[in-house]
């Protein structure tokens, strides 16, 4: 399969007079999709709302040959060079998260075009933005709809930082879901305001919007969430209020809350759900389907996300940090995959750096005799292996970059400017 797809890229380059930059983009998209092809239609045992955490020894990578050492140091040099560069242009293999992809066939090969069904006039497809305050269950609902854990879920607010694109397909539709970071009223760091900008760009380009609220909380107006998420309320797309966590309140209470939201908010419909247990999720899908325009699929039906594997690897490590450490520490951490090497006859090698803002946070992360970091790396490795369905060597190191949450250049490099590394 890989061979066939690679061949398509080569043929296209020979036959079409495209520029080197175009080729790089096509190639970046192709290679990222090749990686994703690995997690198409995989039945994983990952829970939707919870995660496993077991202990075992951390695998360490040992450099086996001089050639390999040289290769790794070249990679590191290239990365440092990239870090010193202010540009961070698309040319270096970035995937845009802020632009809604058109039904653009430019990045699809013949095989994929064939896969997309253009013959069915009743096929629906489009974009759905999930917005809401932190901790209301956006990631849980998104994972539940896709049927696979793509977004990390923790009991702490504001764990989602990036817009996560998840694809939910059936023979008659394709819903492209944007799980967004929770809308925050008090934006404290440059990171927060950049995250909010991404929320807005997700909702603006969406065909419909789901506003999630927590059924356990006293009902409140959602104007603020909508304004932050959509901007101009007059042009807002069809909006559904999802009353989530209905499993935690009595049926009588649910009816009262639905009534309140129907009366005091300007939404098209209110649907109570329990994202965690999947109750009401089909009703949400039916509502979305009624709002999506007819048209062919944007992506092949067996793809569940456009993000590259390394993105999810970093997210898994971040989730484990949230689960293991307390207070401000998880919020001060940025996780970067600095080296990801697929190896034919050996475990894949993944090198991850956790960036913190202060040395005191680094000390906490590492723990006495490195025990805390070892625990973190083990929990992360087990989940990464489960996600990738293969064994990996995971190496985790901690670095201090003072005030990275205020540094726009670094934030862009980390993907908060609406672009993530495609490879
Ligand atoms: N009981 C119950 N808990 C839920 C439900 N949906 C989500 N949760 C829990 O609520 C917490 C927050 O869920 P997330 O999906 O991370 O919430 P989020 O809105 O994406 O959070 P942010 O990243 O802060 O934006 C987790 O502990 C979930 O397990 C639900 O339907 N019922």
TrEMBL record:
G1: annotated segments: 132-139
Record region (G4): 244-247
InterPro entries reported for this sequence: G_ERA_dom, GTP-bd, GTPase_Era-like, KH_dom-like_a/b, KH_dom_type_2, KH_sf_prok-type, P-loop_NTPase, Small_GTP-bd
Gene Ontology CC, one term: chloroplast nucleoid
Domain KH type-2: 325-402
Subcellular location: Plastid, Chloroplast stroma, Chloroplast nucleoid
Region described as G5: spans on this chain: 273-275
Annotated signal sequence range: none
GO molecular function: GTP binding; ribosomal small subunit binding; rRNA binding
Region (G2) location: 158-162
Alphabetized Pfam families for the sequence: KH_2, MMR_HSR1
Span list, region G3: 179-182
Function: Nuclear genome-encoded probable GTPase involved in ribosome biogenesis in chloroplasts. Plays a role in 16S rRNA maturation in plastids and may contribute to the assembly of the small (30S) ribosomal subunit.
Xref: HAMAP family: GTPase_Era
Similarity annotation: Belongs to the TRAFAC class TrmE-Era-EngA-EngB-Septin-like GTPase superfamily. Era GTPase family.
Protein name: GTPase Era
Species whose genome carries this gene: Tripterygium wilfordii
